[in-house]
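Review form for a predicted model. The reviewer records the input and the model, then writes brief findings.
Reviewer: anonymous (R2)
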Amino acid sequence: MDEVEVVVAHSERATLRVGDVFLKVDADQARIDAEVEAMTLVPVPTPEVLWRKPPVLAIAAVPGTVLGRLGEPSTASPAVWAAVGAAIRKLHDTPLPPRLGRAGRGRDELTAELDVECELLVTNGVLPADLVTRNREVAEAALRPWTPAFTHGDLQIVHVFVDGDEVSGIIDWSEAGPGDPLYDLATLTLGHEEHLDDVVEGYGTDVDLDVIRAWWSLRSLLAIRWLTEHGFDPTAPGCEVDVLKSRM
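Model under review:
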């Protein structure tokens, strides 16, 4: 009998694996609705939905291996990273879904949230003030108007699977919806700056690299407290705190 593996679990949702089946437990049915709808609309490989019985969504494992992991070197070739960039471009070129999800946080909302998190990081002694101040300055470049595109919304490197030189699956579409396309590119390459040029080459259009770097700082500053409170370690080598330190 297959064992039950806890893939991730926190107060918002949990994902379990039993053999080749993943069970996603989420009390927010709107989020599950968005995930299922997104997977039916996007022109990239996604997991097969096996069944759904709220609050559980059962999906099949995708073939291949993860592109890499935050804090660890990726063994994927430049060609593979370029293929991922091309797949992301297909996603961003897809017409915006009429009902899917909500628009991502706007500039004013992001600015207010960022200011709160930065103050807490310093006040609570989580990070040195100069480190927070420098990255808050870098993050400013991301706080500009953008044209919304169909985005994944949480395109972490572990959510992308590859087989050979091809993208074999992209998982976890619960945050999909209108957003800044450069946020997807930044999330994918967070902690893997050395592969950014390959991704951009595959993406096939001019992108503002300063904005991507700004999103690295912004995402890391916003994530550190949440990660810590939910049992993750943003201070692990190559993770969010190291990303912030690299901006100094």
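Findings: The chain has a mean pLDDT of 93.
Further findings: The longest helix spans residues 209-229.
Recommendation: see findings above.
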